[in-house]
Each structure stands twice: as C-alpha cells, then as structure tokens.
Amino acid sequence: MRDRRPPHWFAVRLVRVLGAQAPVHSLLGHVHGDCYERLVELARLAPLAPAPGGAERQPLLLDARGSQPVDGVIEAFARLDVEGRQRAMAFRLELGRNRKWQCTALELDPALMPD
Description:
- It is a single chain.
- The protein is about 25% helix and about 30% strand.
- By secondary structure, the protein is of the alpha+beta class.
- The protein has a 4-stranded antiparallel β-sheet with strand order 1-2-3-4.
- The longest helix has 13 residues, at about 5-20.
- The radius of gyration is 14 Å and the shape is globular.
- The relative contact order is 0.22.
C-alpha cells in the first residue's frame, strides 16, 4: 500500500521525469505554479538520467516518506540510489481545492545538479 501514499506516488513520478523517462507534462495538474516552472528547468537538465557512456542504470527509489505539520500539507523526502550512491530529494505537497495533492516545492540534493 505504500505506493498509494502521496509521498511515494509523487516520488516515483518525479524520479521518472527527472530521469528523462517521462515528459514533464505527465505531472501537469499535479505540480502547482512556480514549482512546475522549476520542474521544467530541472527536467531539461535530466539530473537523474544515467551518465552518458556510463552504466544505463536508472535511479532507484529506496524510500519516500512525509510528515504533516498541519492539515493539508505534507513535507516529504525521497531517498534514492543514483549510480550506487544515496541521494535525496525533498518536496512539499498541499491539498488543493479539488481535494487532490499537488507538489508546491521541490529541492534536489546539490550533488545531483550538473556543474
């Protein structure tokens, strides 16, 4: 059942987008405002895609959890295995007016960002 929890559901999809396995628009409606623009920028960099010339190993989602500091908000993190190293991703989910969770903030481990 963990794959139905909002932090895990979002982490799986974010990893696919940031690993160049799914288009950014696959999260349209699930990512809000400025966060969507950030996701577009990050997706262009494909920080979770396998390194050129390296192993074609996609990142592995090890864990995704969150806590609810207030009703309607989940502060979440995901732990990833990226080419044999553990990396992190943090994101914020807010319950929208339509009663669906939307990602409103996203941060990646600086080690994932290209120089």
